[in-house]
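[job 0412] stage=complex_fold ligand=NAP status=START
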Amino acid sequence: MRPHVIMNAGMTLDGKIAARTGDSAISSKEDLERVHRIRESVDAIMVGINTVLADDPRLSIHKIESDAKNPLRVVVDSHGRTPLTSRMFNEEGETLIAVSLKADPERVERLKEKATVVVCGSGPVNLRCLMKKLYKRGVRTLLLEGGGTLNWGMLKEGLVDEVRVAVAPRIVGGRDAVSIVGGEGFPTIAEGVALRLKKHYLLGRDLILEYAVERGG
Ligand SMILES: NC(=O)c1ccc[n+]([C@@H]2O[C@H](COP(=O)([O-])OP(=O)(O)OC[C@H]3O[C@@H](n4cnc5c(N)ncnc54)[C@H](OP(=O)(O)O)[C@@H]3O)[C@@H](O)[C@H]2O)c1
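[job 0412] stage=complex_fold status=DONE, emitting structure tokens
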């Protein structure tokens, strides 16, 4: 058993979730509010370590008025590189860092002062193992908030159930700019993740698209 996973991103029309410099200020105020409404409704939010290092996100519900408790924050971080000074540690609620056996035990001890640490796998974090552990901890719904490398890892393993994107009316290009899904990629279009469009609407200047995953990669 594993949580129901919603992958969400704000991207440019050319599928970039950051510019080549790392600037990721894509989302409009309305879109940030939409994302925080999703945060309100899930048990956990998950990001990859590069997103923590690049953006130092708070990973809490703070863009809307809400009585909801912050969802569990999950960081996928095989080496345990999450900075102890990360802003998310100042937010109410629990943080869980998923490391692998690659992480230095001393580093793990330091992280335990700030977060719950779970070990999954010996190379990159074993995402199936992580999903199982989260389910056992009561996580039934999880919002996957990137970046592109972690999105690929989750899609490749068939662990994503829904995809929601806000398409901003902007093109940034850049071969090194992070796309909504990175990694190795599927070798053919036919092998790609099949989606079914469930809903679409305009939100300010952005087009919101919501898909169900019909068939994993
Ligand atoms: N616009 C948006 O909606 C949005 C949202 C989020 C992020 N972003 C942007 O995306 C960029 C970061 O994306 P990114 O692709 O570079 O990195 P990322 O997906 O945030 O983090 C990837 C890292 O996670 C770790 N990891 C451990 N196990 C993994 C596994 N099984 N599968 C995948 N990753 C695993 C790896 O680092 P280790 O080997 O060290 O463990 C990997 O390099 C930033 O520029 C950020 O601003 C934009």
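The chain has one domain: 4-215.
[job 0412] exit 0
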